[in-house]
Amino acid sequence: MSSNSDDTDTPTDVAPVERRTFVQGLGVLPLSTTLFDGDDDSQTARSQNRPNGGRTRQFTVHAVEVDIFYNRFGLHQPNGVMYVLEENLDAVRAASGVAPDDGFSLVDEETETTQTDSNSGQGRGRGPPDDDADGDEVDTSVIEPLVIRANEGDTIQIRFVNHLDRHASMHQTALPYNVRTSDGMAVGLNPDTTAPPGDTVQYRWEATHTGTHFFYDGANQAVDSADEPPQEANLLSRGLFGAIVVEPEGATWTDPETGGELRSGTRAVIHDPDGLGTTYREFVPFYHTPEGMKPEVFWPDSDEPQTIHAINYRADPLGQRDDEFYNSWTNGDPGGGDNVFETYKGDPVKYTFVGASLEENHVHHLHQSRWKEVPRTASDTIDAQTIGLGDTYDAYLVAGHGPGTLRPGTSFEDAFEVGAGYVHQSAGDVLFHCHLFPHYAEGMWAIMRIHDEVQPDLVPLPNSSGLVGPDDDTPGYPEFVADAIRDVYDLGPDESPIGNLPPKPPLSSVDNPRQPTDVEEQVFGPAEDIVPGAPYADPCTSPEPERIVEYTIVVTRPGNENGIVYNDSGDYDPEALVYVLDRVQIKDPDGTVQETIDVDDADLLRNGDLNPEPLFVRANVGDCVEVRLQNELEEGFPTSVHPHFVGFDQLGSESVTTGFNYEQSTDPGDTMQYRWYADEEGAIFFHDHIIGVSEGMHGLFCGLIVEPKGSEWLDPYSGDPLYSGAQAIIDPPESEAFREQALHYHDFAQLRDGDTGEFVNPDEEHNQNAGTMAINYRNSPFYHRDDEDPAYVHSSKTHGDPETPVLEAYAGDPLRLRLFQGSYEEQHNFGLQGLQFDPEGFAQQDSVSQVIGTSEAFTFRVSSSETDPGFDHITNPDGLPVRDYRYGSNTIDDMWTGMWGLARVWDAQVDHLQTLPGQDAPSESISEAQLEAMGHPAPFADFDWAAEGQRAKLRYASDDDRAFPPDRDARQNGSIGEIPPAPDDAGDPCPDDAPVRSFDVTAFQVDIPYNDYGDHDEYGVVFALDRYVDEIKNGERPVEPLTLHANDGDCIEINLTNDLPEDPNDDHPHPKMRVSQDWDRSERISLHPLLLDYDVNGSNGSTVGFNYDTTVDRGETVTYRWFASGEVGTSILWDMADIRSTRHHGAFGQLVIEPRDSVTLDNRTGEVSVTSAASMIDTGNGEPDFRENALIFADGQFILNRDDPDDCVVPPGPDIENPDAPCTQLGDTEDQGYGGVNYRSEPFVRRFENNDAQHLVYSSRVHGDPNTPIWKALTDDPVRFRVASGADKARAVAFHLADHQWQRFQGVDESPVIGVDGQLSPGKAETFSLLGGAGGLGSGSGNGDYIYQETKQRRRLEAGLWGIFRVRQQPDRFPDEAIQPLPDRAGNVPLSGRPGYVVQVGDVTGTGQQDVVVGVPESEIGAVNAGAVYVFTDTNPSEVTNLADATLQLLGTTTGERVGSVVRLQPRQGESASDIVVETDSGSEFVVAGGESLRDLVDSPPGSDVAEFVRRTTNTRVEAVAAFADVATPMDGDTTGNGSGNGNETTTDGQGGTQTDS
């Protein structure tokens, strides 16, 4: 049976529904027009969205069970499942249960090379002969995730055959389809389009845009909530996922091994004559975490099991390979040969990496490669990317090109043509992996092999260059490495090199250089010509470098017995390992030394006189960088300096033993030489890649910052030239100078308590202490700044400056913050509060709360107009013109553990800070005595900052206690220890002519009901408009996150009142922090905005640095003043007075900044909206009006069940180590608590109580609609989803909306089009403008229920982070509450047909013209269901598009009064005018006098609270606003006129509007 048509029979597994009963019993009814707008579920074309041309591509896809072997060592997934094309079905079944065993084929002459036919996949790995296969080798490479292809404009028809023992499906995440026939789910009121066991369904997708588009099973998305264990219940974790790559029109694709037709495969050759105009290789790696793996694998020398992480059904964990576990000479190629992606030198390569893990994010990193964040633009060039479930990124590997590079005039196409091996054409094995250190150690890595010799099973491309042919005498890679192995181990020419560790590259060791063999000289040239660190291909040749900068770097342990001391409480890492600069040489390109600078940092460190920070060195664009790494560690600690991003020879300077490359580490006691080419500006991560898994968290990470060509580097305090340091003044010759701060995030910092010597965090993960967080080897934990109220944790006046870096600048200085994440596993984000980053061509939202994972590096620019924004700032409490801004992570565990610091901007000159070259010094100055009185550390320092430079903060004086940071006493000086006062003024960032939007807001405690199953937060802390607080407390108005609206150009005033209880109850099981410590809760509260302009000393909502206190005490009211300087979308609002105690209780909200001059309308009533999350935006500027849905996702929330606190939102799964803990404290700290969408959730486990069929968990026909918001729109309506992460933990939300797509980067023409965005971590908010509007781009009906969800399934999606976007063709076709048409589309719906309206037409003003009266009984502006009446004078009903344009607005103010339930017009005696007779829900009748009285009312409405409320909070265009009770009089029973008689009467049932002429 196909599930592709309306299901008119009673489903056998559907139980009656007893709640949310508008769909009660629907499971036994056929779908009908009561639910949808049409009976036809066929692909009825919406012609405006029909794709252009194209062909229909048909695939028969089977879901089959398979025993997947992940490597040659026996690791396998016995219960694996996968998608497979019908033509490959037999080959997959033959390979099931067979281990890939082709790991030495490149060097093993006994291994035969077999080509496969064009339809059977690519014959990479071969297992042992199958007993039933006549001795033939089994091709295991056919077991890989399904990747199919189509051209843009094609239609894809899928016949899906389910061989599994449960329902299964294919849910497409990023292409259009008909949601009622091809969704692969059973969502809302849609039919079930999953396939029962043994059944077949048809799916149809439309390839409307290029890119790679993920699909996966939509029928089994529970993990710990299912009755079965995850390895049975969850098909994603068992392998049921794949992707379709939509290639450009006109492109074709072939098998890379045979050159023949290719129907599927993770590797392909793409011939693209009309797009990029070239032929290139395409590789598609999927990053995933399989469940149910056998046998158990353990960390080396441990009984701790390894979690397995994989790429393309292959994994090679550390526990199954030797210490050189990337090394193929001893271990074989990864995946038994199946995880090697082959190319030739010069071949253009495109990677598409895909997130397919059910729980965790990953970071894709490809060595010796880079790509544009947005192809074909001047966007950032990157070499690492965080990916969540469903994220796909197309990465075209390019040479550095465009602005800020050595090739400014090179086009994207030409940079792509450079191909594999980069500009210098290096050959060898290139590692790619998830850069979360434990993840690659647990198997998530693979190899790209760049051949320089023609291979029998790899067809060359037109760009393949410099290849050794089969008849050439010159040996190719890796033959010369094999020869070196034979030479070192004294093997005979016929003896195999396999099993032996390769030697170092020739001449790379300074102390023990190995001379090249004759074969190596045949390849590299004579010994005298071999470049140390670049034997195969010198990167510093094209073009010739400006100069050579040689750094001698020492890796050692600090001489201080405490290692590195991280904070003022003495938390320290006694096992610290650091890189430190010892010497610098500046050379001419020919190597002639021009200058030698001896740096004494290494000596200071060895002697225990330096408390180091991570090493940051610099180069200019065009510099060749030579690194001499001197290893002073003990035996057993070989190290390296593996560089990202820069050009280098893979066979000499990767410093990793990858594949069949040389061994490139630096042994203890040795010095190795490496050579890099800095051909592009940027922040470049380099780190140890040898012992990083076990030791990297102790400090083995650095940064290379490539500055503009020809720049000078100066110390910001001394003004002296510098060669290392986190802070610098950079003075380029052809552009303005700027200040620079380098920041290295890291986690798993192995800190011990200074008093006890015990780990500050006793937990272990991945066989390591789970540690804590830090920036630049420092942290400033909240729990160490707890001797005053928590509202002052960021206050320097109270606690002194934080131990973390403080960047100082003058007003008008441009800033660049270089952010790295050096270690180890966790996700973080970054923001700078109060200063906006330059979006550099992107939306402003894209630069807020930037997600960062290990190895990622970013440059954030702050323009001079931000540090000097053009309005007068308040001086600080000491009367000094200085202001402090908090930077750091916005995830709660990071903040708690001290991952934050300060940026300080001076409006007057100070002695310790140099001005930028070319900039005038500020006209005012601050004396040292004033600085001392303020508490600034410079006057108290042991070393003069202006003389010693930034190192003054790192050096110990002879009498310093080395158990603490050397600058502790300077920061903890006698002038600090006070609570700063509140300011007298909020500041004035607004232009004089800015419209003012004013909101009275109260913070209070209230029970938050997350659903009607009893899941709630008894101790919820919420913000609400004062007018609505009592209704919320009384349960009359829903508890929702505060949602406010303002426009671009508005001045926003917030009057915040603190109504929290005295001594609030804090005795309940909060989700824990990374480091558990006692905490006394604050009674203060605040509202802190992101993305807005304000005076940080007056309206920050946080007490930061030496600023004023801008938090609010109990019973007090404080005013904040903010300015919206752009249409920035959603600004998250947080309480920063005690974010640890309140954000997991809901203390967040949102202020949505709309287009200038727009009016926000309520979706249901069409009235001006004060605080609606579902709105219509009347743009007022000629642009199309749009619907807006404002979502705040939150995780880590305190949610327990009211009836049974032990009945968890998500049951403790088998991986939970503390199943008896309170529900809110289950699992790792990063996973504790539960999630919600706008304070609502719909947990799987609650729905399973009604019906445990997994594939029906989203069905409203079975369970009723979810408690989460149901967003609504009419077909083709322009829609913007404003999606934000309000709280709290680090995983980030991966947002998906079915059958709808949007640009990843809004407003960027070249932006990829996506259907999943996995970058939403706390503080991040994005606007997703739906392409094609509601119903999407496809040619389907545009009519149905579309799931929105957090894609990550374990403990997130299954906790209830999903809901429905409901689209219908008419406003009244919704099964519950109807909606109004958009104003500019309202002409399609007569006023009398608009749902919920009571309409009368007549002359109520006495002017002889037609007037319109509209009753809106469901209006909630004045109070819940208080109702309203609107009058439009001299107006035809057809001209009424929304109620914000009314002449008169009369608002009910009594809850439940429903003013306007009945409206009639009663002629006035002796006049042409009529009175307006209005009935309330109770039956009471009131009269609003017409004629002259009404005209006077419009001219001079009586003042009222509700009228002032509307005027202050909205941008209404209504001419007059009044309280209904102030202008209406009760009917007196007189029926003869003057408002007291019977007239025509109209009522409404709340669904359809009605109209009567009088």
Automatic annotation (TrEMBL):
Protein name (database record): Multicopper oxidase domain-containing protein
Organism: Haloarcula rubra
Residue ranges constituting the Plastocyanin-like domain according to the UniProt record: 148-249, 617-709
Sequence ranges of Basic and acidic residues compositional bias: 957-971, 1066-1079
Annotated region (Disordered), positions in chain: 33-57, 109-137, 493-516, 957-994, 1060-1079, 1529-1558
Keyword Metal-binding: yes
Compositionally biased residues, Polar residues: 44-57
Origin: domain of life: Archaea
